[in-house]
C-alpha cells in the first residue's frame, strides 16, 4: 500500500477527490436549469434535449467499466488526467454544438470521460487507506461530494440568468482543464507497480469480471445498488410529491431539496466519527434496520396522518441515513481486496447507476399523484438491501485485505 499522506496532503486529497467524484452532479444538475433554453435555441423537442441527460448517465455508467480496469493496469493518475482532459475538450465542443443529435452523442462521450472521476476517487482512497481509516476518509470525501448536488442547480440557474446555455458547458470545460492540472501537479500515483495487473488491457477486464464469481462481493454491491435505488426513488418523485401533491411553490421546494442534500452530506460524515468505536458491519446492520423502519413509517403516514411536516421529517431522516449507508457500504466493499480496486469500484458504480436508473421510471409508472409510490419504492429497495446484507458472511471482512 502507498504511504499515507500527512494531514495537509490529506485535506488537499479530500478536496480534489471530492471534486472529481462529483462529475455526476456537475455534468447533470448544473445544466438542468438550461434545458428549456436549449430546447428553444436548438429548435427541437424537449424530449430530445432530455435524451442528452440519459446519454450522459449511460456514459457515466459504461465509462466506469473502462477506466476502472485500465487503472488497475496503468495506475490511477494517467487515466484520471486523460479522462478530465477529454471531459474538458468535449464540454467545449458541446458549447459549440448547433445540432441536438450531435449534443446527445457528445454528452455520452462526456459521461464516458467524466466517469473516471467517480470510479478512481474510490480506488485512490482504497490504495492509501484500509479499515477504519478508509471509512473516515470516505466519510470526508462523501461530505465534500454531497455539497455539489446542492449547489450545482443554483450555479446553473445563476449562469442562465446572465448568459446563454453554452456558458454552463464552458464552465464545465474550465473545471475539466483545472482538475487535469490539479491532478498533474497535486496528486501522486497511488498504485504501486507491484499491485498492478500485468499483461494486456484485456486482462484487467477479465480480472474485474472474475469478481462476479464472489457471492459475497456481488451481494454487497447489490446492497449498495438498492440503497441508491431508494435514493433515486426519492429524487425522481420529490418534485411531484411536494409541488403537485402538497402544492409547495418552486422556491420552497428548492430550499427543501437543498436541505435534504445537506442531510445526505452530514449523514455521510457520521460513520467516520464512529469508525474507531463501532465496526462498519455493525453500523450498516443498525442503519439499514432503522432506515427500513423509517420508510415503513412513511408508508403508514400516508394512511393515517398525511401531514406535510411529518412527511418532510421522515424523508429528511431517510436521506440522512442514506448518506451514512453510502459511506459505510463503499468502505466495506473497497476494503475487500488490495488488488483490483479499480475493477471493484467500477462494478460498484455500475450497480449504483443501473439500479438507481431503473427505479426512477418505476416510481413514475406507479404514479405521481401521491407520495405512497415513492414510499413503497424506498421501502422495497431498503428491504431488499437489508435481507441481502443479513445473508452475507462478514467474519473475513477485515482480514481479506
TrEMBL record:
Native organism: Lentilactobacillus farraginis DSM 18382 = JCM 14108
Matching SUPFAM superfamilies: MFS general substrate transporter
Subcellular location: Cell membrane
One MF annotation (Gene Ontology) recorded for this entry: xenobiotic transmembrane transporter activity
Protein name: Bcr/CflA family efflux transporter
UniProt-listed Gene3D superfamilies: Multidrug resistance protein D
Biological process (GO), any one: xenobiotic detoxification by transmembrane export across the plasma membrane
Gene Ontology, cellular component aspect: plasma membrane
Main localisation: membrane
Pfam families (UniProt xref): MFS_1
Family: Belongs to the major facilitator superfamily. Bcr/CmlA family.
Ranges annotated as spanning the membrane: 12-28, 48-68, 80-102, 137-160, 166-187, 217-235, 255-274, 286-304, 310-334, 346-365, 371-392
Keyword terms, alphabetized: Cell membrane, Membrane, Transmembrane, Transmembrane helix, Transport
InterPro entries found in the cross-reference section: Efflux_drug-R_Bcr/CmlA, MFS, MFS_dom, MFS_trans_sf, Sugar_transporter_CS
Topology of this chain in the membrane: Multi-pass membrane protein
Domain Major facilitator superfamily (MFS) profile: 13-395
PANTHER family in the cross-refs: MAJOR FACILITATOR SUPERFAMILY (PTHR23502), POLYAMINE TRANSPORTER 2-RELATED (PTHR23502:SF132)
